Amino acid sequence: xxxxxxxxxxxxxxxxxxxxxxxxxxxxxxxxxxxxxxxxxxxxxxxxxxxxxxxxxxxxxxxxxxxxxxxxxxxxxxxxxxxxxxxxxxxxxxxxxxxxxxxxxxxxxxxxxxxxxxxxxxxxxxxxxxxxxxxxxxxxxxxxxxxxxxxxxxxxxxxxxxxxxxxxxxxxxxxxxxxxxxxxxxxxxxxxxxxxxxxxxxxxxxxxxxxxxxxxxxxxxxxxxxxxxxxxxxxxxxxxxxxxxxxxxxxxxxxxxxxxxxxxxxxxxxxxxxxxxxxxxxxxxxxxxxxxxxxxxxxxxxxxxxxxxxxxxxxxxxxxxxxxxxxxxxxxxxxxxxxxxxxxxxxxxxxxxxxxxxxxxxxxxxxxxxxxxxxxxxxxxxxxxxxxxxxxxxxxxxxxxxxxxxxxxxxxxxxxxxxxxxxxxxxxxxxxxxxxxxxxxxxxxxxxxxxxxxxxxxxxxxxxxxxxxxxxxxxxxxxxxx
Length: 482
Fold this sequence. Notes:
The chain is an alpha+beta fold.
């Protein structure tokens, strides 16, 4: 029998340790009868050409959907894709333990949909950002990886038109962008240029710091690479009203932040740790946040055997914490127990700890249009280019040590990897809605080995550059281009 354990609660009056233990075994304990996990109700509306049924039956039972027998895993779990015709679809699931009927409505095609039309203003208008973290986008689509920057509350922007629920923003005479109408409020005052009074660079033990004193908050963007390029827009006395700075790195980029402190724009680039090769403590002085995805009221994906993603995430994260500490890392956990932690709080905690690495542990699911029988194994996601090497190192390590399909690395705009100042990656360990992967996740040995593989991948990433580059060899080169 395997155990998923939660942790450790300290009574306010006495240091009494309470362990909450959840037992899972290598068959579906809830499957005394036909148990359908998804769809969650007997009637649902799904706008997709296909969906799937996920759940479990009593071991030894058979199962058919509309009189067609479907395969059952040895744990009793099943996952079966079905097609949806426009309109009403009826599915009858029959096993030795019972029969259940599901009605799924797929919306009919048609309607009077009209695409939004761009409206250009006769005169520019001024808007003010109404919430910190509002994204400015390269296209008029409120999703995906089209974000240019994230702006703080109070920044004013010059808008030149609108398209649907988006404003078109003029960053400079030659560069435009888009922002959601819901993220700004109209201002009656005219839009004015900013002025750059001064700029300087300095360093601390942990950071290279670049400060730009401006007359007001004004838009900016930054590109990553061996040469980082910072553009500060709408700045008078500069070509194209854009002040451009280039910073030539003498190290690998290992986390940075860019934000206004008052009207001063501050760029902090974290120094690459000065590691001393030590067999026992290869991650000494490295600060790592381990994030067990979901928790509390947020279950995450529900597995075939009605097990919860949040529990698998916590178990693997606890093993990962243990392995990283053995390597000498300073490890911080966003949650130690089955409790809800918001995405914003996970980001805030990571930034407060000034972590160099952030790893979020999850288990995977699928959209309705995908077939859960055809998707197995691990994938990992990053948002900023600086995190791609870490993502690759982790999945390469998992591929070497685990008998597991590797789906590969992907770029995605997840909040926890987009808003943290650490080098950040989100790992999808396996699919909870695939019967074979679900069985692996229920196995304590798998969870333990997976955590070890992630820890080894982090170690590989940290040491990739140590023999080639020394951060003491030369200083960063910082220069104003225009």
